[in-house]
Design brief:
single chain, mainly alpha, 16 helices, globular
Length: 392
């Protein structure tokens, strides 16, 4: 993989850390800014909404610029709002920076996905996608725990400063490593208009792939969001084990996205079918054996690997399927990822609110993957029937 692709992954690492780090900083923010815990939690919701809304909108805006210019604009905006967030004493301002930061994050990731697959051979889109998304998994392994430690030692603002500082090298790396491109915008160079790209969303294969990506990612973050209370209340491990278990999930995620990227370009269908079945079974096993510390910790590692192997493969398949959307494909993929990241925890929260206990989100994850498998099966059957009719 080109070195420039790894540099883009560094920026994605910083952005992934920002997206998830508030899980460990919420109480400190609430106390410092004198707001409620739910109000502090709304900072995460604002980021999620910004990601979903921003992915297609920022990708559309970025069509007028070269890829390097778009990446720089989004990354510098992301950096600046984190500096503002680190110094503000106003909750509304902090809330605004989370939304604007998410817009910039979404735009960067959307353009970066297109840039990444453009850096490699057309048969290596899976590896390019997994290399970029490896920044997200490393955020889970290193960035989020580090942000929690910084928050405990120097206060929550230090985590915001750290994200801004990590973004600085990526800015200079993009200036040096990503080609400036032609003077006209990306959209103009492709010869495909924005309206035509948006119409490609009618393509059944693309719609199904986006839906599957949202379902699988929803399952992943449904359990991940409530993993801490599962570990302490059901598994019976002490609070000190929570970072360890979260890190295990992150290690599995990194292994899964790395291995999945190597397989996705050559055997994507077997990986999705067998990996999806194993993923559904794994969530069921975790729900059943969550009270056993050994089984639970092993399954957290395995499920992290399977979730990101299957999820990253689906995202790479979006890049293959979106042939009619050469500049907006990354936006479509980013939006699907974040619809799942927002909807999954919401579904898990509904199950908890209904009084079903901390195993409930794991069962919801299993149900979401089963729904994804059923959807894929129906789509495959319909495609086969249509092909036979056309042949006849």
């Amino acid at each position: 993989m080109p070195f420039a692709l790894h540099l883009l992954g560094l920026a994605v690492f910083a952005q992934g850390t920002s997206e998830f780090m508030l899980a460990g900083l919420g109480p400190d923010i609430a106390r410092d800014l004198q707001v409620s815990i739910p109000a502090a939690g709304a900072l995460t919701s604002a980021f999620a909404v910004g990601m979903v809304v921003g992915a297609p909108l920022m990708a559309l805006a970025g069509r007028r610029w070269s890829q390097r210019r778009a990446l720089l604009l989004f990354l510098v905006t992301f950096l600046v709002v984190h500096v503002v967030g680190a110094v503000t004493t106003s909750y509304p301002v902090l809330l605004g920076t989370r939304f604007v930061g998410a817009l910039a994050n979404a735009g960067f990731l959307a353009v970066a996905l297109v840039t990444a697959v453009g850096m490699v051979d057309r048969t290596a889109k899976g590896r390019a996608t997994s290399t970029l998304l490896g920044g997200v998994t490393m955020a889970c392994v290193v960035g989020v725990p580090a942000g929690a430690v910084l928050g405990q030692v120097w206060g929550w603002r230090s985590a915001f400063w750290a994200v801004a500082l990590v973004s600085v090298p990526a800015v200079f790396a993009i200036l040096r490593a990503v080609p400036a491109g032609a003077g006209t915008g990306v959209g103009a160079r492709t010869g495909v208009g924005a309206a035509a790209e948006l119409r490609s969303l009618r393509e059944p294969r693309l719609l199904v792939t986006l839906g599957l990506g949202a379902l699988v990612n929803g399952a992943t973050f449904c359990t991940f969001t409530y993993l801490a209370p599962l570990v302490t209340s059901v598994t019976g491990l002490g609070a000190g084990w929570v970072p360890v278990v979260l890190a295990l999930f992150g290690v599995g995620s990194f292994a899964g996205v790395t291995a999945g990227g190597r397989i996705a370009d050559v055997r994507p269908v077997p990986l999705l079918v067998y990996g999806g079945l194993a993923l559904a079974l794994g969530w069921v096993l975790l729900a059943v054996t969550a009270g056993n510390p050994v089984a639970a910790t092993v399954l957290v590692l395995v499920q992290g690997a399977l979730s990101f192997a299957v999820g990253s493969t689906l995202i790479s398949q979006v890049m293959y399927a979106a042939t009619g959307a050469p500049t907006l494909a990354g936006g479509f993929a980013t939006a699907a990822l974040n619809v799942g990241a927002a909807a999954g925890p919401w579904c898990g929260g509904l199950a908890l609110a209904a009084g079903h206990g901390f195993r409930a989100p794991v069962w919801v994850s299993a149900a979401l993957v089963v729904l994804a498998l059923a959807t894929a099966g129906v789509a495959a059957t319909s495609a086969t029937v249509m092909a036979r009719r056309e042949y006849v």
